[in-house]
Amino acid sequence: MRRRVALIVVIAVIMGILPGCGSRSKINDTLDRFEVACSDLDVEKILDCIDPTFADPVRDMYSLYALISKEKAEDSFKNMIRDMFGVDFEPKEFLNNLKMEDRKIKSSGRRAVVRCRLTFEIKGETFKRNTRVNLRKYRDEWYITGFELDNSADDGFF
Q1: For the whole prediction, is pTM greater than 0.85?
Q2: 68 pLDDT more than 50
């Protein structure tokens, strides 16, 4: 009888833990895909990681600008990245080597927050910023809804 109760408890614990592990894995997958897309400077794949309520209109606008002129499309991409990350320089300067390290994930239902250290390099200088990445689950996929960077210091971590 005790073995049966112990087995039931173990199964209940495993079933309670596994769904959280799956969410964490999918959240990390989204962030990994975002890092690779940034490294490749692939606008479409970057937008695939962003909340569709934001990304779809941006994708439409980006496509429209691309039809008008290549220069304007690049400008629209630069402006989109500047607005997302709060930076005012060429996106390729920091996107090529952007990494989200020391990820700490908290999820609840369809929302998640990832605290991490965002590292990137500009003109040979490495920057590290404590960052909150907000995500939401939509149609069984996780999407980035925003970034909150702490621009005050490179030292310390949450």
Answers
A1: no
A2: yes
